[in-house]
Amino acid sequence: MATFTVKDLSFTYPGREEPAISHISFKVEYGEFVVVCGQTGCGKSTLLRNLKSVLTPHGQRKGEILFYGRPIETISDREQASRIGYVLQNPDNQIVTDKVWHELAFGLESLGYDTKVIRLRVAEMANFFGIQSWFMRDVSQLSGGQKQILNLGSVMAMQPDVLILDEPTAQLDPIAATDFLETVKKINREIGTTIIMTEHRLDDVFPMADRVILMDKGRILAEDAPEKVGKILAEKNHPLLVAMPAPMQIFESLTNHKMSAKQAPGPKQVPGPEPAEASPITVRQGRTWLTDIFAGKQLVKLRIDDPRESRPQGEPLIELKDVWFRYSRDDVDVIKGLSLKVEKGQLYCIVGGNGSGKTTALSIIGGINKPYRGKVIVKGEDIAKQRNRKITENIVILPQNPQTLFVEKTVALDLMEVLDEKTLSAREKEQRVREIADRIEITHLLESHPYDLSGGEQQRVALAKVMLTEPEVLLLDEPTKGLDNHFKQKLAKILKQLVDEGVTIIMVSHDIEFCGNYGDLCAMFFDGNVITTNTPNQFFSGNSFYTTAANRMSRHLFENAVTVQDVVTLCRENLWQKKVLQRETPVQEEV
Questions:
Q1: Cα–Cα nearest to 45, from 164, 166, 151, 213
Q2: DSSP reduced 3-state for 23
Q3: Which residues, other chains included, contact 88 with Cβ-Cβ below 8 Å and sequence gap of 6+?
Q4: Of 255, 481, 508, 553, which is least surrounded by CB within 10 A?
């Protein structure tokens, strides 16, 4: 019997004419691993929340949801709590106690289990998830990755039949995200728990999935095995293809013969590889495929020409000199001898692990926190000596949690609130709000309550709000969190326009792909300091973990290919030469 059977499900939020999800039908079999993906706002989170009654949002629902053949609304809250586990996007939104051990036991205590059972299950989960070393710690001392593992452990202690995860790695660095997803895979493979997950890190989750459900504008666009959905999207020329794993994107780009005139190799040149039924979805499969198509061929171009590498250095707009900071006198230093320079009109990306001090560094640049040693210089002036915040008044921060910016009942009122102190007429203010809403593509959300939006939609609204302030320096803390790749491209275009207008952008991000594609400079943060800075192609091409899937897939062939487009470009230039020269020895895999 299927774990979930969804029949003709539609859901409409109050005050909305268009349903968030419309006429959706599918089944999830026992023990299956299903990934639900789609563009931001396509209805993924709404669908998942309808699978557990206590989390179903307020609105009108039509259709039927069966849990092991029984209507979901007839199943008691107690049974749903124990049998349907749910992990939210933000780790802090799910934690309810102050100690790790108590959080693990909380669900079992609420269900009324006796002490012996609770102790046994808590001990079992602590061992399974590797929590022993921080079992007695305060929850407030944990990193984002540890908090999410704790949430997962506390849910699994109740031994649910099905585990639903709504973008659980959105706030985790690449290494913590990989560890978390490997744990989810282990739960599915070794315990047999049914998994239903929405996630934007498709490079990591596709190899784990049995089936993928692609959603578009509230409906199911496709439903198939992970390795087959790329062909479906390529045939439809659907923009969701850019959200697929890098090996799949590269494969479909090179085997799709419906190319534009600019892309076509020419009548006398060698065509690309022939299309196949299934795409590679892992780095290993992608590397093997690339090795096969280049076997016996001479590579005439090994490097991408990156204009960012030859750009002359300018005067820094922002400079930090030997900055040290701690949150209180008795705390350890969070920032340790930090020095960096950011030029005017530059997109400067900072990557690094959770808890390494990246967000704290942004708060220091923005003048929110003051270092106890060192200098923060903006436009040639030390901000410690500024008067009336004149230097930092045009520095705006978009925080990691966008909800901290929302103060009104609708998105429109929230955006209008930014303009309260500006000397504009009511009509001019309304026009400004409409313009920014069109630019960020949130016009359809203006009458919604900000807290009713998905995580990605909230991120877009928050971005619109800070852009209305017309900043000179924009500090972004995880701006791509919750956004699909399709909108990330649009966000990159918006940031590029701002940079062209002279706005300086410093971005902290776990999104390696975004930084590699669009950053001017990338810096690695470790232990409170920047340990290296370079242009994206130089920065990412030598790393093992802090690099892109496209680089890991192609580094045995090409020297500095970092993005999907880099790999596609080099493949085309090497495959579509006028004369293909034979190599003396075939391409070998790197050891």
A1: 166
A2: strand
A3: 94, 151, 166, 168
A4: 255
The model's pLDDT over 255-280, given as tens digits with 9 standing for 90+, comes to: 864 433 344 344 333 445 555 568 89
Amino acid of residue 14: P
Mean pLDDT value across residues 548-560: 91
Question: Would you call 519 helix, strand, or coil by DSSP?
Answer: coil
pLDDT digits 0-9 by tens, 78-131: 999 999 999 988 888 889 999 999 999 999 999 999 999 999 999 999 998 888
DSSP string, 290-314: HHHHHTTB--S------GGGGPPP-
Q: Concatenated DSSP letters for 235-253? A: HHT-GGGGGS-HHHHHHHH
Written as one letter, the residue type at 331 is D
Contact assessment for residue 384 and residue 370, using Cβ atoms and an 8 Å cutoff: yes
| DSSP secondary structure code for residue 138 in this structure | B
Q: What type of residue is 186?
A: K
Whether 419 contacts 455, CB under 8 Å: no
User: How many of the other CB atoms lie within 10 Å of CB of 295?
Assistant: 12
* pLDDT tens for each residue of 368-409: 899 999 999 988 888 877 665 666 678 999 988 888 899 999
Distance of CA 191 to the CA centre of its chain: 27
Place of tokens 């002490």: 115
Alpha-carbon span 217 to 246, nearest angstrom: 24
Residue type, 124: E
pTM across the whole model: 0.81
Beta carbons within 10 angstroms of residue 177's beta carbon: 23
Amino acid at 54: V
- Alpha carbon dihedral 374, 379, 385, 389, in 10-degree steps, equals -120
